[in-house]
Prior knowledge:
By secondary structure, this protein is α+β, with helices and mostly antiparallel strands. It is about 30% helix and about 20% strand.
Amino acid sequence: MTPGSGTLFPEQIQHLGDFSEVAAVELPAIELFQSLGWTHANLYQEFGGESPEGRRTMHTAVLPKRLWAALQDLNSALPPEALNEAVAEITRDRTAMLPTDANAEIYRLLKDGVPVHVQGPDGERKTEIARVIDWRDARANDLLIAQQVWFQGELYKRRADLVGFINGLPLLLIELKGPGENVKDAFR
């Protein structure tokens, strides 16, 4: 790993000689992402009031500070109130929806942008679009490959090996297994 790219914690490493899951699969995957322009962070203990990413609990899936910064960069002409509206819409709880409907809604927001309301110079309220991802220039986005991210749902607490955050949104989930693991058992 490159200097300053994150820290491994002893409890993360399964000692299997040089063939540990971390050494054999996780670190090479992180290095591959870094070679593609992604930054890296270990988020094993990254939540709470002091979290640099703004994650307050394991229930928070997005990285609020990165999302806010990306929205500001991509929508510099929109006022903060409109960006707050975009954040609220993107992060709105959709657990009561059918998963397919929730996914379709998020897909549209990511692809087409988030409709937000702004007040025009004449005082009239109009709708603008807040872009969430720059689809034309990938380098304009904040790409973070995060290692060992805890998530807490209604029933379970899980730790993902790698999560790809684009502009603070978790859009890529990678679960890795060491060379000695039975894939079928790992899946179960």
